[in-house]
Amino acid sequence: VTAGMDRMAGSCGKGTGHHLRTLTGHDGAVWSAGYSPDGQRIVTGGWDKTARVWNAQMGTELLALTGHDGWVFSASYSADGQRIVTGSGDTAKVWDANTGQELLTLTGHESGVRSASYSPDGERIVTAGGDKTAKVWEAQTGTELLTLRGHDGWVFSAGYSPDGQRIVTASLDGTVKVWNAQTGTELLTLTGHDSRVWSAVY
Asked: What sign does the dihedral 124-38-87-50 (CA atoms) show?
């Protein structure tokens, strides 16, 4: 599944690169697209300040998640597929993945949220912000647990290692940093890019 600037939610195929579906419904660019853990649904985040949920086989729109006041840069599922977390120009929000009901708003960043994702066990959420920080939250209550400080520019991306023990962040400052996910201690700085780093994953 892909995301792009051309008002399409994306296209999906299995390994061959063959185009199967075009998901249309967003009014403007689509910043993010990803599958649910069971592969039955796709969630997208768009310029139109919404996230949308689609039937992955048919391409039909199932839900529109409305409530953000800024572009939705990031949308992803929890590991059990029951919740979706979105990151937007205003804040991050948690939604019921089956009904589209808004469950939580994660307030604490001093600028927009460029990325939001769950830990592998679903107990925590990590967000990346325009305030040069990443933050870790308790997923059920929205309580802020940690603030990861050290970047000198916007943090565009933040995500967990598969074992949930580390977090990797990518920033406008041209670096990638690795952090202890439990304590927030900075462990490594990866230098080498000559410009901003948009994304980093394990």
From this structure: negative
- Residue 91 neighbours by CB under 8 Å, 6+ apart: 68, 105, 106, 107, 109, 112, 113
Residue 48, SS3? coil
| CA angle, residues 135, 3, 163, in degrees to nearest 5 | 40
Average pLDDT over every residue of 183-199: 97
Residue found by looking up tokens 């990151």 in the block: 87
Spell 10-35 as b/e; 16+ CB within 10 A means b.
Answer: bbbeeeeeeeebebebbeebbbbbbb
Can you give the pTM of this predicted structure? 0.89
Residue for token pair 């409530």: 67
- Span 28-34, average pLDDT: 94
C-alpha atoms less than 13 angstroms from C-alpha of 184 in its C-beta half-sphere: 14
C-alpha closest to that of 51 among 28, 74, 35: 74
Q: Where are the beta strands (DSSP E) in the chain?
A: 30-35, 41-46, 50-55, 61-66, 72-77, 83-88, 92-96, 102-106, 113-118, 124-129, 133-138, 144-149, 155-160, 166-171, 176-180, 186-190
